[in-house]
Design goal:
Elements: E1 2-5, E2 21-24, H1 25-34, H2 42-49, E3 51-52, E4 61-62, H3 70-77, E5 85-89, H4 96-110, E6 115-119, H5 122-138, H6 141-144, E7 155-158, E8 161-167, H7 171-174, E9 181-185, H8 200-205, E10 215-220, H9 228-234, E11 238-245, E12 252-253, E13 260-261, H10 270-275, E14 278-280, E15 287-288, H11 290-298, E16 301-307, E17 314-318, H12 329-339, H13 343-352, H14 367-372, E18 388-395, E19 400-407, E20 413-421, H15 424-431, E21 435-436, E22 442-443, E23 447-451, H16 456-465, E24 470-475, E25 484-488, E26 500-504, H17 506-517, E27 526-528, H18 534-540, E28 543-550, E29 553-560, H19 568-582, H20 608-615
Parallel strand pairs: 5-10, 5-17, 6-8, 6-9, 9-10, 11-17, 18-23, 20-27, 23-24, 24-26
Antiparallel strand pairs: 1-2, 3-4, 7-8, 11-12, 11-16, 13-14, 14-15, 18-19, 19-20, 21-22, 25-26, 28-29
Length: about 625
């Protein structure tokens, strides 16, 4: 068979038509391979080629960008040669996985390269490969021609490239091959780093470092602030939100849940209250209906809300479920009303609908609250009610953070000094100073606990040399029945061998600090000195308590609010409070001054005991018998 291969220039432009060349079939195929790819973005490719499979889509057929216009900007960021990492922090069911699949289809047709998709587990990777990914790819004729039918379930082969699928729980699958394009789905369900294995996200990204033109796409619904996707979003060079024009005032706004309004009438059912929910524009106060939302979405645009660097390589996109064309205002209001009284269900609403990290507001602290706990006393002055001084030291690789706190009855306390030291000599000097009360009475630190989790040998040596006021301590990795437990150091060869080691349940003490921080200044409160520095306030409130689900069990734990925030002074305050506990601070209010002996006011009248002694003074000489 002979084929003609020709391209004719327009005769009306006065140009000579190109001659036709007769070629064989194999020559034609070879020439096709030399043709450059079409000049398409990912969104243009999706609208031209993508076909939605009826098994995985509620709207099967050709892809239409106008249905979910907010996905266009995310997809086309893949074509920005300056961008290396794309982050999509999203609610559920808004198209995050479809964006990933469109990028995969585009890569197979337009830019074949070694590619990997990482899912939370390898079991899920197999299921998606069989039920979603392969049907999607083979539904497109141009891709089906490139697909090798004998491909393994987790290693799809195409002309010019392979597509590897792996589970984040399989480190060997993440570290086995070089990858130029990396896709990571639902990263907040990935396991964290452990002592045996590295963080799966870092492990996967290591596969891409030899490619100067690498592309990394990461998407997930957030869980907590320290989760993978929220940390990635906060650390991105650029963060973008989707703005839409109000149909009434024309101002571009973001959709926020607080602007959904529904009746407060408690006599109405939740369903009835939610059914009349509307969105109120934050600019003009006009009502935006569900019908208005569709036209607003088509005119919307991604705008930068945070720009950290001049040369951006990481771009984050964030949106909530209010933008979904498939969800009504009533659906969102009803879900909130049904979940607001159940913390676990409310957490799901916060994560899966609002695309926000969950925070437990019962034990939530902030720096401004600490500043409200300032007293009238300056630094280094001990309150007159104080009966004890304790210290705490958090040990880091390059420095030490220390604090000194005064204690009185009913766990009333006030920070009198804190700081950062570069050596143990500085800490020793601060702990051995005399601190004066308001009336000039000197006081010294009764006990200081030093964190031995880092620089352990150095801490043991220091505590052994200063055992008159210092003990090593260590935070317990498991919940304890009591707030602290006394153990012994059994490290052979250590100067501290046999010394007391204080094991601390840090979660319990952080609960105490957060609870007492909320009390007004006075009895039982946790206070700070006047003109306390704001950095201290930030550090002692750097953590919050959140629900964490592990092995099917949900429990509340303290975690850092931001991955980059310092919490060293909070740890130091925990050690200082534990030191006070060791000294019996809880029973200080039971101690009373020595009561003087009573004197009988009756003059000249002897007590019965005195009369007995006088009568029986010679009882020993009488052989132990005595008179009555």
């Amino acid at each position: 068979m002979r084929l003609s291969c020709s391209q004719n220039a327009g005769d009306d432009q006065g140009k000579m038509p190109r001659s036709k060349f007769i070629v064989t079939a194999y020559q034609f195929d070879a020439l096709q391979m030399l043709c450059p790819p079409e000049q398409l973005t990912v969104s243009e490719w999706a609208e031209q080629y993508r076909i939605l499979d009826p098994r995985s889509s509620a709207m099967p057929g050709k892809w239409n960008n106008s249905i979910t216009p907010y996905l266009v900007g995310i997809m086309d960021e893949f074509n920005n040669y300056e961008t290396e990492v794309i982050i999509f922090c999203k609610p559920t069911q808004v198209g995050g996985t479809e964006v990933l699949q469109n990028m995969i289809g585009y890569t197979v047709m337009q830019d074949p390269s070694p590619t990997m998709i990482v899912y939370p587990t390898d079991v899920l990777a197999k299921s998606i490969s069989e039920n979603r990914l392969q049907p999607m790819l083979t539904a497109i004729p141009e891709i089906k021609k490139r697909f090798h039918e004998n491909s393994a379930m987790l290693e799809l082969q195409f002309d010019g490239m392979y597509l590897s699928l792996a589970g984040s729980n399989s480190p060997s699958g993440l570290a086995s091959k070089p990858i130029r394009i990396l896709m990571m789905d639902e990263v907040d369900k990935y396991p964290g780093a452990s002592s045996r294995e590295a963080d799966p996200i870092k492990l996967a990204m290591e596969r891409t470092k030899t490619f100067h033109n690498r592309k990394i796409f990461m998407t997930s619904t957030p869980t907590i602030r320290t989760g993978h996707i929220w940390r990635a979003k906060e650390g991105a060079d650029i963060e973008k939100h989707y703005f839409v024009p109000c149909t009434h005032c024309g101002e571009f706004i973001e959709f926020f849940f607080k602007n959904i309004r529904f009746p407060d009438d408690e006599t109405m059912s939740y369903a009835d209250r939610a059914e009349v929910a509307v969105y109120v524009c934050q600019k003009c106060g006009c009502i935006i209906t569900d019908n208005d939302k569709h036209s607003m979405l088509r005119l919307g645009e991604w705008r930068i809300v945070r720009h950290n660097t001049k040369y951006a390589r990481t771009v984050a996109f964030w949106m909530n479920t209010l933008y979904s064309p498939f969800v009504r205002w009533a659906d969102i209001a009803k879900e909130f009303l049904l979940t607001k009284d159940n913390p676990e269900e409310l957490q799901n609403f916060t994560n899966s609908w609002l695309a926000e990290p969950w925070e437990d507001t019962k034990l939530k602290t902030n720096a401004d609250l600490v500043m409200e706990r300032q007293t009238e006393l300056p630094a280094l002055i001990v309150p007159e009610w104080a009966k004890l001084l304790t210290g705490g030291v958090d040990v880091q690789e390059n420095s030490l953070y220390w604090t000194i706190r005064a204690w009185g009855d009913f766990l009333t306390s006030q920070n009198i000094a804190h700081g950062q030291a570069l050596s143990f000599e500085e800490v020793d000097r601060m702990m051995n100073l005399e601190y004066m009360t308001e009336k000039g009475t000197p006081m010294i630190v009764n006990l200081c606990l030093v964190d031995s989790g880092d620089q352990t040998d150095m801490v043991y040596d220091f505590c052994a040399s200063h055992s008159d006021y210092c003990l090593p301590s260590k935070g317990s990795s498991h919940a304890q029945l009591s707030h602290y437990k006394l153990s012994r150091i059994n490290k052979e060869g250590s100067r501290a061998y046999g010394m007391t080691l204080v094991l601390i349940d840090t979660e319990k003490y952080k609960d105490m600090i957060a609870g007492r921080m909320k009390r007004e200044n006075g009895r039982g409160s946790w206070m700070v000195y006047a003109d306390c520095d704001y950095e201290y306030a930030v550090q002692v409130t750097a953590e919050h308590k959140v629900n964490v689900k592990r092995n099917g069990v949900t429990r509340q734990v303290w975690q850092k609010k931001h991955s980059h925030g310092d919490n060293h002074l909070l740890d130091a305050e925990v050690y200082a409070m534990a030191a006070a506990d060791v000294l019996g601070v809880r029973t200080l209010h039971l101690e009373q001054e020595e009561i003087p002996k009573r004197q009988n006011p009756a003059s000249g009248k002897e007590q019965p005991e005195e009369q007995w002694i006088k009568v029986n003074e010679d009882w020993m000489q009488r052989g132990g018998s005595y008179g009555s």
